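Reposting from the mailing list since nobody answered there.

I have sequence plus structure tokens for a pair of proteins and want to know whether others read the tokens the same way I do. The first protein:
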Amino acid sequence: MRRQSYSLKIFVLASILAFAPLGLSISNWQQVAVADDAADALNKCDVLASDPHDPDRNAAGVTNEQMVPRQAIEACKSAVDLNPDVARAWFELGRAYWIGERDKEAFAALGEAAKQGYAPASKYLDDVAAYLKGKAAEAAKDEFDPSIFQNPTFMTRLYNYNGPRVLRDPLILYLTGFTDKIGGPEPFFVSGQRCLPQISAQSTSILVQLGVQIGQSYMLEPQKLTNMVTLYTDQGGRDAIALFNRHGCDSAITRRIISNVNALAVYLNGG
């Protein structure tokens, strides 16, 4: 039995050597097999994840909508494991991760491709960064952040205003500057947007009159009065622009603050 087993092994080995090309050892055959596997894996990754706009692609390419992320990730993960020095495979893996909403892994793979000098990966990273920045800006429109304003205390009061309360002169002066910047009958332009005035003409008139009255009633040295008026009206004007820059013309936050400004003006007018 042992002789038969030994003879079988000799027969198998002889058969392999007989069909092997001249000069190839068993080790060479193993290397050829690994190379074939690497090429097959890379080809599969190309087919499932190459970008149609990539000038260095090795396949027709698939659009974002056509890609099946799970399949592409599996294929390209195998491709980079077997071809770690092929930047294209890293790029395609990163693209598959990104479309599959696995952002952290996407940045790592795209970063490796870019590090290896693959230009499409650098371009893709720039596009992704721009997309994320735009997405963050859109999300910020729905979050009130007082820290972006010159006078965060006053803007917080305007945001949270819910009825009559004692209003001191600095806030009234601030409101005067606020309405002066974005009130009036004409549209104004902020960050490429054409915004229609949302503060009523009545509110603007009331606040301007109150600002004038404050200036006339204060028994301060002229320079001190000028400094105070300038400080708060300037802050109000800057914060009006900051509000529209950050939150746009028609966001819920903008509408809420403008509505509160109008309500305050009516209250200050004795309504």
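The second protein, same order (residues first, tokens after):
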Amino acid sequence: MKYKNCKDCDHWESEDGEAGECRRYAPHAKRRMDIARTVAGWPTTHRVDWCGEFAPTREKVETAPSG
């Protein structure tokens, strides 16, 4: 695995494969200016974003060649 992007992380959930939610930690409060309320949610990330908390997806670990 060359890159450690969100799309390859076990903590990332996405419906369309382009944008998704990082579910590494519990949802946190965000101020929504469009509805003038505070709501809880996971951070939205793009498939090629990355961070220092990367964890390879289980499928990649289970199918990775050893050596």
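Reply #1 (J.P.):
I read it the same way you do. The CA atoms of residues 23 and 31 lie 19 Å apart.
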